[in-house]
Design a protein that fits this description.
By secondary structure, this protein is mainly β. Strands 1, 2, 3, 4, 5, 6, 7, 8, 9 and 10 form a ten-stranded antiparallel sheet that branches.
């Protein structure tokens, strides 16, 4: 009898430990951080590397603005893309931004572009990235160093470049 009671107690305990709540109670929230309007130069590529096709897109400038910062995008960065045969592209854009009060911030934005088909066989397109910022720690922009960010493109008619909306993960 004691063995049965102990086995029952252990089973109930195990079920409670393994039980999960969907969705989890502590789901991260997003807070809009800034919008980047990035101007681009002429892309060039290197075919048939050991990793796939490499495309380089020069970053020539632009502007950015958000609730807590505003400024320009510094000419001289680039978006390095690796195109796979499966329709998936890995991107890594490396560039700097300069705030209106003269503070330089380094940006490294890694992401994925994927063209595929959804569960119903319809074409689908996915483009998301995760920018990381390196700001002077003792500046009013130091908060950029201590958070995760995600971004998504916004297609804008009449703008020769790419618009990226960036959210801070809270």
């Amino acid at each position: 009898m004691k063995k049965l009671a102990l086995l029952t107690l252990l089973t109930v305990f195990a079920l409670n430990v393994c039980a999960q709540n969907y969705p989890p109670k502590d789901t991260p929230q997003l807070e809009f951080a800034l919008q980047l309007k990035v101007t681009l130069g002429e892309a060039y590529g290197i075919d048939n590397t050991q990793h796939g096709r490499r495309t380089v897109i020069p970053i020539t400038g632009g502007t950015f603005e958000g609730p807590n910062l505003k400024g320009t995008i510094v000419n001289g960065g680039a978006d390095y893309q690796l195109n796979g045969a499966d329709g998936r592209t890995e991107l890594e854009a490396i560039y700097c931004i300069k705030t209106d009060d003269g503070v330089y911030i380094h940006v490294r934005n890694r992401g994925i572009i994927a063209s595929s088909k959804d569960a119903d066989g319809k074409p689908s397109f996915y483009f998301r990235a995760a920018p990381q910022f390196e700001a002077p720690a003792d500046s009013k922009y130091g908060w950029l160093n201590n958070a995760l960010f995600v971004c998504a493109p916004e297609w804008s008619q009449g703008f020769n470049g790419i618009v990226l909306n960036v959210w801070k993960v809270k």
